[in-house]
Amino acid sequence: MTQKITAHDVNVFYGEKQAIRQVSIDIDQEDVTAFIGPSGCGKSTFLRTLNRMNDTVASARVEGDIRLDGEDIYSKDMDVVQLRARVGMVFQKPNPFPKSIYENVAYGPRIHGLASGKSEMDAIVEQSLTRAGLWAEVKDRLSDSGTALSGGQQQRLCIARAIAVDPEVILMDEPCSALDPIATARIEELIHDLRGRYAIVIVTHNMQQAARVSQKTAFFHLGELVEYGDTNDIFTNPREPRTTDYITGRYG
Ligand SMILES: Nc1ncnc2c1ncn2[C@@H]1O[C@H](COP(=O)(O)OP(=O)(O)OP(=O)(O)O)[C@@H](O)[C@H]1O
Ligand SMILES: [Mg+2]
């Protein structure tokens, strides 16, 4: 297994309050990794350390060592805009730009200069929408507003937008929590299809979803990484009593 991201002794503070405590974890290139744990345990906070999204929170302070392919992402030399293209993010609530479907996908590649002309851009847009499982549904309405799509389609558009800049890692923070079961199933299929091409980390409150989509699971509790391992082991044979309590629904 190739380690795409390695995190060592990570602490995150919001002002005086510590939200993440001494978390160390390696994220595999080939796997989907699920972050689970009760509300407020720090899943989103830790996820955001992986592409420096916490930089946008004034009170947040990150300590520790986080590397992408061995490169220190908190180094002064790290270009954060570039980093966030390499480590893309999909949020809980689909958040397409108030622009056309085409422009939602073309925006990132344009900023990053990935296409040299219209036909190259067209190809990137088509490929990204195809990989996101949305092309067939939108190919005849690319100039419609992204916000006019259904919730599930909007979320796939956001995934297409992340894919369009050719990322290495995709972080998803509860990407299905605003979606109905059918739209959720489509996103889960998509995650399955994207596995291997991108390292994927998904935060979910849905145990069945974690079991279905991931190969590795990390259980967080009160800011600590309690247990991390093969998803199968975490769900069938957890080592820590706190993990057992959580997955059997005793709290959370
Ligand atoms: N911007 C912020 N400012 C101050 N405290 C924050 C901020 N964001 C999160 N926190 C605090 O950090 C802790 C971890 O929050 P976080 O959002 O990472 O948890 P979570 O596991 O993602 O929860 P949920 O499952 O509800 O999304 C919580 O105590 C939360 O109140
Ligand atoms: Mg969260």
From TrEMBL:
* A GO cellular component annotation in the UniProt record: plasma membrane
The listed locations are:
Cell inner membrane
Which InterPro entries does the entry mention? AAA+_ATPase (IPR003593), ABC_transporter-like_ATP-bd (IPR003439), ABC_transporter-like_CS (IPR017871), P-loop_NTPase (IPR027417), PstB-like (IPR005670)
Which EC class is the enzyme in? Answer: hydrolase
An example GO biological process term is: phosphate ion transmembrane transport
Membrane topology according to the record = Peripheral membrane protein
GO terms for MF:
ATP binding; ATP hydrolysis activity; phosphate transmembrane transporter activity
UniProt keyword annotation of Nuclease present: no
Task: Using the record for this protein, list the coiled-coil segments as residue ranges, or answer none.
Answer: none
Task: Report the EC code(s) recorded for this entry.
Answer: 3.6.3.27
Q: Does the keyword Transferase apply?
A: no
Q: ABC transporter domain spans which residues? A: 5-247
The identity of this protein, by name, is: Phosphate import ATP-binding protein PstB
Q: Enumerate the UniProt keywords alphabetically.
A: ATP-binding, Cell membrane, Hydrolase, Membrane, Nucleotide-binding, Phosphate transport, Translocase, Transport
Q: What does this protein do?
A: Part of the ABC transporter complex PstSACB involved in phosphate import. Responsible for energy coupling to the transport system.
